[in-house]
Amino acid sequence: MRSSLPFTPQNCFAVARDEAEIQSLLNNDVYKFLMLDFILAHPEYRDIEVRWKMKVRNHDVHLAEVIPESALREQLNAARHLGWVSQADISYLRGMLTTKWQPLLREETLTFLKDFRLPDYELEADGQWGYDLTFTGPWKTSIMWEILALKIVNTLYLYHYTKKARLSPSEFNGMMTKTFSRLYADIDIFKAHPNVTFSEFGTRRSASTDIHRMVLEILESELPGQCVGTSNVMLAREFWQSNPRGTNAHELRMIPTAMVDNPQSIVDTMYRIDREWMTHFPELAILLPDTFGTSFYLKNAPKDIIQGHVGCRFDSKDPRIAIPEYVDWLLQNGQNPMEKLAIPSDGLDAKNAVDIMQRCSEQVGKLTFGIGTNLTNNTKGTIPVEKEIFGPFGSFSVVIKPDAVWRKDESKWVSTVKLSDNPNKAMGSPERVKLFKQVFGMAGMEEQEVSV
After folding, report:
1. DSSP codes joined into one string, 418-436
2. Which of 262, 277, 304, 399 qualifies as a FRET site for 150, CA 20 to 30 Å off?
3. Spatial CA neighbour of 376 closest among 177, 215, 251, 232
4. Coil, strand, or helix at residue 198?
5. Number of other residues whose CB lies within 10 A of the CB of residue 198
6. Are 426 and 265 in contact (CB under 8 A)?
7. pLDDT tens profile 320-331
8. What sign has the CA pseudo-torsion 53, 56, 59, 65?
9. Residue 170 CB: number of other CB atoms within 10 A?
10. 17-167 against 169-376: fold identical
11. Which CATH superfamily is domain 17-167 in?
12. CATH of domain 169-376
């Protein structure tokens, strides 16, 4: 008998309907398209061979115990062989404009996307409970796997967990009801503080595309002046938003710096990339300084970057520390903080967004937020405790990052590095991490619990 309950696996998960989770390349964060546009414009970057790897940061999350390998392969294969990109999709991408009414993406990029295909993947069992998931290919094509694969992994984990835990229809409905009750509680907090604005950044760890769509519909209805957009290109199009929200990611600095060994060359490459990005996207000249440490980045930033950037995204340092540090740096360099944009974006929810706003809003010209997992996958602890038998249920910290680049002239793979302001998020081989720590130091870094 068909359930009359509002939430069922069939209306929450594509896999429960025997459908592909990824049915469009646009079901992706906009910064992937922006970075693609950038690297296609720079021949020295586009064909760098990059190896990407999945890493589960939570040691008590055992993917292979929950997600059948056949189910994971089926969804990855569906994405891998998807025919992309439709003319309607191209038209939407072409319609994304700057504030000066210029196309955001170049025609070369749109032409490239018409015949786009993802490179292949490698999947192996990693010990008893994990998976070793790897993607290898030129940066210009492998760039698109990260978000799509993360969506697949997160969705399959939740769906197969509920299936293996044998949740009854009522229990499943209760789980989803709790999840959306949390969303409405956050909405109440936002409504009580109408000066707090945010973009929805939850694509990579959304519970599913179906649930993501429900969340965004509620946010659009309940907080039309405060939820200013989504990073998801497909959903931005569905909800008639002119431009999705986003700029760039850490990979933009991780990959080129892996091509050099000299300490000064590593530093120069980091700043060169940001300089080139600012030239390519002047309106999106928003710094992401925590790749190798915010304090080093600010202290040593070249004058043209100081003067040319329009704002800063704070990703792994507590914004209550990072924003004052950023403001002091601006003042020391003759810049007006009231002309800059600040975007905290790591592990936020309504309560801490409000707290940050109350403490820091008068320090910069505009303070807005990027909020992700806690909007689109706020599922931790929502199933009956006696059914939580395969490790923790709900969202968990999983990433897919550049792992290494292939140096053709030396015929070898070289590890990429991300230090982060939170050493618990550091990535890279021990040798390269040691080198980068020697180059950038550890000033301003502080270990914090990784929740997303």
Report:
1. B--SSGGG-BS-HHHHHHH
2. 277
3. 215
4. strand
5. 26
6. no
7. 999 999 999 999
8. negative
9. 10
10. yes
11. nicotinate phosphoribosyltransferase (3.20.140.10)
12. 3.20.140.10
Task: Write down the domain spans for the chain.
Answer: 17-167, 169-376
Q: Of 176, 265, 168, 248, which is closest to residue 214 (Cα–Cα)?
A: 176
Residue keyed to tokens 């936020």: 348
Q: How far, in Å, CA of 65 to CA of 146, rounded? A: 22
Instruction: Output the pLDDT for position 448.
Output: 73
Residue type for 25, please? L
Structure tokens at 204: 């990579």
pTM: 0.96
Record the tokens describing residue 181, joined without a space: 């009750």
For residue 450, the model assigns a pLDDT of 64
Burial readout 268-279 (b: 16 or more C-beta within 10 A, e: otherwise): ebbbebbbbbbe
Q: If we measure between CA atoms, which residue out of 249, 253, 270, 255 comes closest to residue 406?
A: 255
Helix (H, G, I), strand (E, B) or coil at 103: strand
What φ, ψ does residue 227 adopt, rounded to 5°?
-85, 105
pLDDT of residue 3 exceeding 90: no
Is pLDDT above 70 for 250? Answer: yes
- Asked if residue 117 lies in contact with residue 124, where contact means CB atoms within 8 angstroms, the answer is no
Q: Does residue 284 contact residue 315 with C-beta atoms inside 8 Å? A: no
- Kindly report, residue by residue over 381-417, the tens digit of the pLDDT: 999 999 999 999 999 999 999 999 999 999 999 999 9
**8 A C-beta contact, residue 373 and residue 385:** no
The DSSP symbol for 402 reads: E
